[in-house]
Amino acid sequence: MEREVLEFDIQFVGAGPAGLAGAIHLANLIEKHNQSITSGAPGTAIPETTIAVLEKSARVGAHGISGAVMDPRAIAELMPDWRERGCPIGSDVTSDDVMFLSSGGQFRLPFVPPALENHGNVVLSLGDLVGWLAGIAEEKGVLVATETPAASPLVENGRVIGVRTGDKGINRNGEKKPTYQPGADCHAKATVLCEGPRGTITKVLEQQLELTAGKDPQVYATGVKEIWEMPAGRVQKGRVIHTMGYPLSNDTFGGGFIYGLSDTLWSVGMVTGLDARDPTSDPHGNLQRMKTHPYVRALLEGGKPISYGAKAIPEGGWYAMPKLSADGLLLCGDSAGFLNGGRLKGIHLAIKSGMLAAETLFECLVANDFSKPRLSGYDRRVEASWAATELRSMRNFHQAFDSGLLVALPRTGFQMFVGGLDPFGDHLKGHASHERMRKLAQVHPAGKPPVPKADGVLTFDKLADVYLSGTLHDEDQPVHLKVADVNVCATQCRAEYGNPCQHFCPANVYEMVTDEGRPKRADGSPELKLQINASNCVHCKTCDIADPYQIITWVTPEGGGGPDYKKL
């Protein structure tokens, strides 16, 4: 069976806020331009333009997850009548609290740091938002292709000419099934990567095209989130609570959030830095522990979780962003690190990046010139935008936490008042997330601490939460989590780090199980082997990021597989 070749003018990879905003804005610009030409303005009309958005999930929004409190600045630029058109917000923000939690008590900050003030912002579900945007894009003639994962880049003579989508109908042994269907080669004059954090194609092209040369390494956190359904009257719609402290140690970046999504729904989540020193650091476990705090427990009492998900978050800031353009290529959204860690926000920056990409592509269409110099206009647009101003103002935010929370608080406060400058310099060097992990014996000389048992009412184990994520994959397909050498897992990693993949994965994908085919060790303990439960995967990319040996590679599974998030 021959591989189909599809020709588009412009293609966006990923139907998140960046890709969909870019497609909508480009369609609007073309329509406005052609209307002006029809009305007698000088110039030439742009011929019919094919704009495609390729999305790996079964429906747009199924893989969409964020906190989410959105700054509406960018969406108001995209469509000034966004409210009138029915943008699916949960609520306008009605109150802000920042809480410092200890193991048994809490302290409300007497003021909200400027970066965390949310007056004028809205609480929403990212999945609902992108589902709505997809409908608008389709109304404008954009092709939104679901179950179409971009698996590999197509590069000729240093120019990105498109992407190859994933094959379907391959069994777990790599053999073709009767349902085999090869992926298509999707060619375009320009490809815009909006894959989200640690994108599969972005990761390949960053190395192949040297997009990260001279840049700081990106550093990530993992956000884990549950939606709790509460009895009527128990949720203050629009209430925003951020927490710091418990259950995280002083030297672990992160914090919690509780948002009133509606009058019956709490959005409850925890962000844990993947640059944690402790190899047993567990983002899912941290959320469960946070919920046991008396302050949080009281808010959730009488409710039940109805949805769950997890996602990596690019926290590196301005200096960790890759080059944003190359020959035939633009990068947007989380793929390019458009996230303000100090404000805990990225949706508005993703939308703005997509719009700036669209303006660059519109210029290319008018000039009929998609050369590398013309596409580099995107970099200049970003540099001159309010998005860049905002990102530069938080350029050293995450790095300030390298010395721990108590030192970071005054440092980040200083940064916020002087435009991002840190007391120790204008450019604090970053580090890759996995580089800070210490050996197990250094952190826990007496062995791993016990894992609290879930009670099934307030706290839940990973498998129970994975069920709430709706994740589903065809079991008879190649494992999409590629481990270069499983012997490292059974020997070196077990001895040095205690197999941290069992802890940092929020979906119980990685398990060390008894290897019945090998004799016991000298101390009588069994030999272990890695078992990969790929069907549990929620596509968060944590393993690809946090593995201390960097031997795990996340690749796209068959299209349509993965989580089916609701209200996340």
From TrEMBL:
Compartmental location: Membrane
Gene3D superfamilies: 3.30.70.20, 3.30.9.90, FAD/NAD(P)-binding domain (3.50.50.60)
EC code: 1.5.5.1
Alphabetical UniProt keywords: Electron transport, FAD, Flavoprotein, Iron, Iron-sulfur, Membrane, Metal-binding, Oxidoreductase, Transit peptide, Transport, Ubiquinone
Matching InterPro entries: 4Fe4S_Fe-S-bd, ETF-QO, ETF-QO/FixC_UQ-bd, ETF-QO/FixX_C, FAD/NAD-bd_sf
This protein's GO CC annotations: membrane
Cofactor binding annotation: Binds 1 [4Fe-4S] cluster.
SUPFAM superfamilies in UniProt: 4Fe-4S ferredoxins, FAD-linked reductases, C-terminal domain, FAD/NAD(P)-binding domain
Major localisation: membrane
Requisite cofactors: FAD; [4Fe-4S] cluster
A Pfam family: Fer4_ETF_QO
Matches recorded under PROSITE patterns: 4FE4S_FER_2
Catalysis: reaction(s): a ubiquinone + reduced [electron-transfer flavoprotein] = a ubiquinol + oxidized [electron-transfer flavoprotein] + H(+)
Known function: Accepts electrons from ETF and reduces ubiquinone.
UniProt protein name: Electron transfer flavoprotein-ubiquinone oxidoreductase
Organism of derivation: Eiseniibacteriota bacterium
